[in-house]
Amino acid sequence: MGAEVVIEGLTKSFGRQTIWRDVTLTLPPGEVSVMLGPSGTGKSVFLKSMIGLLKPERGKCVVNGVDIVRCSEHKMYETRKLFGVLFQDGALFGSMNLYDNVAFPLREHTKKSETEIRRIALEKLEMTGLAGAEKKLPGEISGGMRKRAGLARALVLDPEIILCDEPDSGLDPVRTAYISQLLVDLNAQIDATILIVTHNINLARTVPDNIGMLYRKELVMFGPREVLLTSDEPVVRQFLNGSRMGPIGMSEEKDQAQMAREQAHAAAGHHDGSTEEVRGIVPQLKPTPGLPDRAGARRRMDRVMRGLHTLPRAAQDGIIQSLSPEEQRYYNIGSRHQGPPQGATNPQPQRSAPLPQRQPQHQGQLPADQVAQLPGKPGGRYGYGGPRQGGQ
């Protein structure tokens, strides 16, 4: 299972310019999380700060008991081996073929024989759909193949945490769909903790277990995907729907007068050019048939159902509505919720295999006294953190 990443009060500035401040969240082990935010909100800076490439001014980033912000160079070197990073452009060496690019970390950081290096490199190339392309140079392949080669290289040291910086950038919708499925399949196979920075709303709706959003130099929200997908927070709704209506402007936050003009314009029946608003919880991507079910997805659902009553009502309804009949029986919720809320249209995802024949540690909602014992903030360490002031 992947490592847990605990971030507390992280703050980063360049000179007098604060990029973000007091970011606090926990990446649950073995789960897939996405970080959203308008351009220029410091999402890539956040990833680089997590692995020590940039040094925050304040706060902690703790991985396996090591605080990346304050640890020694030796501890930093050792802890970085837990990470695999997919950079925006793949960051491949142009003079090396794909095989040598993927083998590079093994030659640099291990004492493995060339025979063992070849076995591992070819295995990761095959895992990312690049078997047979190992002799090609980066300049001879498509952008999607370069992304997959970068991901193969990120996997060769068997990381517990995978960071993906805009894996969809520069890709068409079809290739983005392939990358999305690949990330889900990888999580099913290796159970690593994954954090994806992206602008792609379809990826954000369908891939992650948890979603966060940076805006106005703060973390607006972070929590189970259902919380953000059903949120009435204006900046979250605007971003998830790609609309001009809302607090986000072209270059900076809009003032109240501009927002009032836009609302009056919309009330008069003028369309703002965005697509029809989408609300509710869409089905999450499942692993490709033949692969195991995602252990992280099962742990996440157990965790969410334990703290269900700590979530906003819209998220509660959306979660229960999205459960299959087998899952509703498994979590013993039929007597507490009589079907989906009126007018709901969300489809129910189908499981590829029966639920395991076991009893969960806690069926349904936890009593209040047990919820209070969960670590972290109300709702548990990985629970809904609530909107930050910056998202108002």
Automatic annotation (TrEMBL):
GO terms for molecular function: ATP binding. Residues 269-279 have a biased composition (Basic and acidic residues). SMART domains: AAA. Keywords: ATP-binding, Nucleotide-binding, Transport. Residues 257-267 have a biased composition (Low complexity). Residues 377-392 have a biased composition (Gly residues). It holds the Pfam family ABC_tran. It comes from Amycolatopsis pigmentata. The lineage of its organism: Bacteria, Bacillati, Actinomycetota, Actinomycetes, Pseudonocardiales. This is ATP-binding cassette domain-containing protein. InterPro entries: AAA+_ATPase (IPR003593), ABC_transporter-like_ATP-bd (IPR003439), ABC_transporter-like_CS (IPR017871), P-loop_NTPase (IPR027417). PROSITE patterns: ABC_TRANSPORTER_1, ABC_TRANSPORTER_2. Residues 5-241 form the ABC transporter domain. It comes from the Bacteria. Residues 245-298, 332-392 are annotated as: Disordered.
